[in-house]
Amino acid sequence: xxxxxxxxxxxxxxxxxxxxxxxxxxxxxxxxxxxxxxxxxxxxxxxxxxxxxxxxxxxxxxxxxxxxxxxxxxxxxxxxxxxxxxxxxxxxxxxxxxxxxxxxxxxxxxxxxxxxxxxxxxxxxxxxxxxxxxxxxxxxxxxxxxxxxxxxxxxxxxxxxxxxxxxxxxxxxxxxxxxxxxxxxxxxxxxxxxxxxxxxxxxxxxxxxxxxxxxxxxxxxxxxxxxxxxxxxxxxxxxxxxxxxxxxxxxxxxxxxxxxxxxxxxxxxxxxxxxxxxxxxxxxxxxxxxxxxxxxxxxxxxxxxxxxxxxxxxxxxxxxxxxxxxxxxxxxxxxxxxxxxxxxxxxxxxxxxxxxxxxxxxxxxxxxxxxxxxxxxxxxxxxxxxxxxxxxxxxxxxxxxxxxxxxxxxxxxxxxxxxxxxxxxxxxxxxxxx
Length: 434
Hints:
It is built from 13 helices and 13 strands. By secondary structure, it is of the alpha/beta class.
C-alpha cells in the first residue's frame, strides 16, 4: 500500500542542476533527504552555498537542516551517506545521463542509483526517474535492477514513475516550479499519485502522460527538435556566409512572418541538446531504423567549432596577420551565457582547431571554474573579474554572450580580427559573425 503523500519522506538522488532545485521546492513542504556521491558538494550545500548558482543562497539556507527531518516535518538534509535514505518512501533519481566518446548512451549512473535505492526500498515505495533517456529505460533497464536487488515485485510491492526534468541552467525566469511538468506512472493509480505529488510544488501545472514510455519519448524529442532547428540555421549561416549575406539580418526579416520559428546559429553544447538526440538515435537503431535527420543535425552542429576557427584564420590571412604563433583570445567557455556550466561545451572545439595551426590561444571566462575546466578538458583558462588586455591579440572570438562581455572595448581594426559567434555586437564592430 502506497503511503499517503502527506505522510511521505522524499529522497532526491543527485544534487546537481536538476536535483537541487527540485529538492529545495519539495523541502518547503516535505521532509527531504538529498543524496550526492560528491562529499565536497554535500558540504558546500550544508553550508548554504550552491556553486551552480541555480538556487539562491538565501533560499537554500531557509530549507537546509543539520539532521534528517522527521516525518511530517519539512526541510532538506544533504548527505553522502546512502543509509540516510532508509526511512524514505519516495525516491526521485536525478542523476546525469551522458554519452561516451563514441556518442553511445551511458546508463551507468542510473543503474548504480537504482541499485543503491533498491537496498533500502520497502513495500509500497515509489521510485521516480527524471533523467533524460530513450523510451523503455525506466521499465526495461532500471526496474529489473530494483527488483533484483530489493527482492520486491514490480507493480505489486513497489512502483515506478517518470517525470522528465525541464531545467534550463542559468534561467532565473523559467525555474523548476514555473515550468509545466510531464508526469507518468507504472499503473493508472500510480500515475495519479505521481501527478498529484508534483502538483504540490509545480505552480505551472502538470501534464499526465499515458505511459512512462510516452513521457520518456516526449522528453528526448524536446531537445532533438531544438537540435535539428539549430542545425538548420547553422547550415543557413554557412550558405549565407559564402553568398556574402548577413545571417542575422536574414533571420530578422524572415522572423516578421507570424509562424517563423526564431532560432539562431551558434555552438550547441551542454548536457541536453548536444547529448539527448544520441539517446533517441541509439534506440532507433536498436529496432532497425537509421535516423537520418537526427544524426545529420548532430553532425552539422558538432562541426561549428571548427567552422568558427577556420573563418577566423581566413580573416587573419586577409588582413595579412601572422597565423602561426599568433595570439588569439576566446571570450567565454561555458556552454551558455551567464551560467557556470561547462559540461559538453563546444567552445573547446574552437580552441583545439586553432591549436592545430600552432596558434597561442587564451580563454577568458569569469563564470567558469578554472579547476573544473582543467579537470574536464586539460586546459588552463583565465578567470576573475578583469578581462585581459584585448590589444595584445591578433584575433578576439566572442564565443559566449556573458553580460560582462557586452561592455568590453571590442572593435575590429587592421591589426585585429573580431569574430562574434553569438551576434551580440554591432555589425560594424566585427569582421564576421555566424
